[in-house]
Amino acid sequence: MIVRHLSLTDFRNYRTAEVALEPGANLFVGRNGQGKTNLVESLGYLSTLGSHRVSNDQALIRAGEDAAIVRARLEHDGRELLVELQLNRASANRAQVNRAAIKPRELPRYISTVLFAPEDLALVRGEPSTRRRFVDALLGAKAPRLLGVFSDYERVLKQRNALLKSARASGLKDAKLTTLELWNERLVDLGAEIMAERLAIVAALGPFVREAYQAVAGSDQEPTLEVVMSVLSEHPETDTDDSGEPAPSVGAGLSRDDLAEAFRAALDRVARAERDRGITLVGPHRDDVLFRLNTLPAKGYASHGESWSFALALKLACAELLRADSSTGDPIVILDDVFAELDQRRRGRLADAVKDYQQVLITAAVYDDVPEELTAHTVRIEAGAIVEAETPEAAETPEAPDA
Description:
By secondary structure, the chain is of the alpha/beta class. It has helices spanning 36-48, 122-125, 128-142, 146-170, 178-217, 256-269, 271-277, 298-301, 304-324, 344-354; strands at residues 2-11, 14-20, 24-29, 67-76, 79-88, 94-97, 100-102, 113-116, 223-228, 288-293, 296-297, 332-336, 359-364, 377-382, 385-388.
């Protein structure tokens, strides 16, 4: 799959933007703050319904405007497809495919991207919520129907938490919380599916991560991934969420039925603590993925360079996993401001790892940071305006001074 043309209206700092893209590598060059990342962010949003920079859609709409529009003309096996998304400040977002209306959550069925940016270092060094979002985004890209499951789980979780808080505030007795049992069953049903899917995708991702890490880092270190589940913890009410080390509750080889049974048992164990605290203490919303490098947790033990290589390997592994199981061609690989963070050796290794993908989009502040084999089609960005460079030399832009 490739993007042939990208069109933006009132997206970020672009009043309008029209840019033609080519198969293979496409390099966007410009000083910091000119709008390079905004271009690739728009395509990432089409495929994931989320931004790698902000959590609020409103930030994507140009200041003073009511809506932003992203249009992409895609091509696969000689067939073209026009996908469009309108982000609205005061109403629901709208989407179209070939001018026919669809639900926005259906967009990931039509476009697949894997984006790596400096922010992804948080996958290794950050909080469990970052790793949960990473795994769930991969699941959504591989099986878009799961986006609905995630949404339903969040809705049920919110309802259950509201009931627990109400019970705590009013002092309701256990016998009066019969409604809680109804929410429990729905939570278990959806949660078991999510946990089972996470186990499967992490197991499938592991070999690709090992191969990608060795390709990028050039070392024989052994990266591994394990899902850590709160429903398997003996004391989940004392486990930390989004801070500290995860509890040693790795769930491997468990079926969906096994997980559902474990979830029910965990809810029984923490029932009193949940009523006291007014919050759901177990479930996939409190799980983590443990990354190890040579048996040691990468978080806290890996060096800066090792953490970078691990994060990059995770994203390259996602691309390989998606291309191995795709009927629409390769995912579009996006490297946002990555090469400046790598030494010369790792730059070359990364170029070798991505050069055979159908389309790669790269942003850089300095032209010379990017290996020559990835500069065939270069576009210069200046203050929200796009200028196609006639030659790679014409695209060279000096590095911006620190703000």
